[in-house]
Amino acid sequence: MMLMTAMNEVDLRRIDLNLLVALEVLLDERHVTNSANRLNLSQPAMSRTLARLRDTFGDQLLVRVTNGYELTARAEGLISPLDETLVQVRRTFSKPDFDPATATGEFKICTLGYGEVVVIPTLMDIITNEAPNIEIVIVHRSIYSAEENLDEGADIVFGAMLPDCPKYCVIQQLFEDRFVCVMRKGHPLTKTELTLDKYLEYPHSIIHTGERPGSHVDSLLEEHGHVRRIVKRSPHWTSSMMSLANTDLLQTVPERLAKSVTFTGGLTIRDLPFELGPLKLAQMWHARSNNDPRHKWFRDKFFEAAKIVSSKD
Question: Which end of the chain is more exposed for a tag (fewer CB within 10 A), N or C?
């Protein structure tokens, strides 16, 4: 036969938990009047509180003796567990803090190559100075949906502003960039004006992420009855641009990224032969992290890094 020990469960709905604070003071002061003064209560109000505590615990708790009051055995036994309980309760209701200087752990940023090349270097300068024990993890944005990226554990998603976003996503616009055309140095178009006809004459390399075919460049061209010839698709911004060397391919990319790569990549930048709206860059995060001090500090640092980047125009 299995023997089972049953514990008496207390219905907390029938107990005024505010009494625990009064009990803590009574167990510490061991005096009704002194406890009343400490709690800013009148002596009669404190006596009524003690009566309620006695009823709740089924014990006198505090009894008169010749020189004042004395705790009962039951009251003595409550000192340690009550102290532990109130420490946990106060911790539960206290506002969590975050000290970057001593913090450890990691933050995950979901971004394409643009973010890693343009913003992350500045962010790393800030993070390593303020939070030397924090690790930054870059998660490749293999899917365009910010919703899915955040659900998979990213702290923030950095990239182009989305036309629509789930209600539980928070979006903060950071800065704008403009699109330019990149080609190898020595490309035939470096010696002539880059017209729309010339732009359409040469083959193109484009960025292709997830299930999102083409780009707004193609959409704009189609609106005016034009189609460019795409011969290469890649999910990688930087390596895709580097691969233009020794080819006549053109690639339309954000200017800040282009400047970062052409500095060492043997490439040259030309203005586009048509108007293309600005690229609006933003950071996105899950609403559940909105009031988390740790997360707020991190996205503030990302915002700071983005402002430094945009101020270099």
Answer: N
Q: Which amino acid is at 80?
A: S
Q: Which of 271, 257, 277 is nearest to 158 (CA)?
A: 257
Q: Cα–Cα distance between 144 and 111 in angstroms, integer?
A: 10
171 and 300 together in one domain: yes
Max mean pLDDT among 84-88, 90-94, 112-116, 246-250 falls in 246-250
Residue 99: inside a domain, yes or no? Answer: no
What count of residues does the chain have?
313
Count of domains forming the chain: 3
What integer is the mean pLDDT of 251-278? 88
238 in a domain, yes or no? yes
DSSP string, 10-77: P-GGGS-TTHHHHHHHHHHH--HHHHHHHTT--HHHHHHHHHHHHHHHTS--EEEETTEEEE-HHHHH
Domain boundary among 71, 93, 115: 93
Paired tokens of 87: 């420490």
Query: Could you give the strand order of the β-sheet that contains 179-184, starting from the edge strand earlier in sequence?
Result: 251-254, 179-184, 267-270
